[in-house]
Write a structure and sequence with these properties.
The structure is a homodimer of 244-residue chains. With 244 residues, chain A is α+β, with helices and mostly antiparallel strands. Helix content of chain A is 43%, strand content 21%. In chain A, helix 5 packs across helix 8 and helix 6 crosses helix 7. The two termini of chain A are 25 Å apart. The structure holds a DNA duplex (30 and 30 nucleotides).
DNA sequence: CGGCCGCTTGACTATTATCAAAGATGGTGG
DNA sequence: CCACCATCTTTGATAATAGTCAAGCGGCCG
């Protein structure tokens, strides 16, 4: 299975790369304050009326939707430098601090004033939602058409690419979230996630210092797995390699 | 597994029910024309720059994303009365006519003029994208946390609810799309979809005249399945019922 | 009438979930 | 400072759901 990457730029390709989100924030958040959220605390929950938007200064945020019996889907994560809360006037999902987070806040009033006065900012907010939608379509593909190994490889490559973007090492990846967050993000169980990590180690794709620190030993192969190009060398062979 | 339905209204709950989309269209599409699209023709494909938006007069449209090897995900369907193409300036997915469709068109220029001049229309377009995002989060839940029976029940209830909304019988459901479209929408294979239909028949949940005409015999039970409430009476018992 | 396409059904396989339990790790209190 | 407890992760054994491969049926259109 092969994923065409070209289209991934579609929603934003025809527009100039948005100015630094943090700059927007600094420009318009005159009234805003700062907030610290402890690990595993919720920043907002599904159904809450939006009162503020946030810029993440440090920490990682996890977005999820829950069912009564504890089942949940993690729709994504947000990292330092990201602005969160742009979606809609009523939150469609929970936002939970994976680690202790420092957030800069902007009131909705300030946000609305900003979008009214600054066309670039308004467009940024709109594009953000479109990009989110695109991302969720891609995630649908990952969840319905990929094996456990491909999903985990995809996840690791996501983290690696983000590292690259912000100037960190693309091969030594910190995993701030717990296994359950990864599992709920990838539509797997924690056991399968754990086993797949073990398979990757056994196959020489990664090395692990501890559950939160992964070194990508064979990034090319991981990338191939992640995009489904790794024909008939997919989860099967990796699993067999472990059995042998 | 139980789905909380309350939040489903969240994104639009705090705003008045939007005026009839068709009315917006009639008001602003002065320049627009009409177009007829044959079954299984594409209206646009992923990556296309958006040139028009459309109001569906008749027919059903299927949105999908494709992989090179033919794998695809159907992210949703659109029906008569729906406006399509509001997402972003570059299409993030294919739009394909499931049946022969009649579409009314509005040029992008007219659309942009309309959103600039008519605040209600602009808000309608924005809300549409937010609702789409919400829908896709829900779909993630269906695809990752539900069994084949639950997924198909969910799909049938979606069609039934739409029938109700537009004044058709909620218990006799026409299925305009092919099995492959359903399968790709639900993250299953056509065989599993077909088998699950058979199971539903055997369990007395539905009756079928032909593959395109389904009667909901036990809508309550289907609704329970669809929302995951049908505890330990889920796919297992239905499958067992067939085996017996 | 025949061929094609879509749907259904069957047999078998494989991937992942489930159930269960044993290491780690980290924080707290004695 | 160490022991204990809670939580998270890993590993193992087993089972179940859905996928794959294969074949037959039926309708529709040329």
């Amino acid at each position: 299975m092969q994923i065409i990457e070209a289209h991934q730029h579609s929603a934003i390709a025809f527009r100039p790369r948005p100015t630094d989100p943090a700059a927007f924030f600094a420009k318009h958040a005159s009234q805003g304050g700062c907030r610290k959220v402890a690990a595993h605390q919720f920043i907002w929950i599904e159904g809450d009326v939006r009162r503020e938007i946030f810029l993440i200064r440090s920490g990682v945020v996890c977005f999820s939707r829950m069912l009564m019996d504890g089942r949940r889907v993690v729709t994504g994560f947000a990292y330092p430098g990201d602005i969160i809360g742009l979606g809609s006037a009523v939150h469609a999902r929970n936002a939970e601090a994976v680690q202790c987070c420092k957030l800069e806040t902007m009131t909705i009033a300030a946000f609305q004033r900003a979008t009214g006065m600054d066309a670039a900012f308004a467009r940024f907010a709109q594009d953000h939602v479109s990009a989110e939608l695109l991302h969720s379509y891609e995630h649908l593909m990952v969840l319905t058409k990929m094996t456990a190994s491909e999903r985990l490889a995809h996840f690791l490559m996501d983290l690696s690419k983000r590292n690259l973007r912000v100037g960190h090492s693309p091969t030594s990846v910190l995993i701030p979230m717990r296994r359950i967050d990864i599992a709920d993000h990838l539509g797997l169980t924690i056991e399968t996630v754990s086993r797949t990590f073990t398979c990757f180690k056994a196959a020489g794709l990664i090395a692990m210092e501890d559950p939160a620190v992964v070194y990508l030993i064979d990034p090319a192969r991981l990338a191939a797995l992640a995009s489904g190009v790794d024909e008939e060398e997919g989860s099967v062979s990796i699993r067999r390699k472990l059995a042998a």
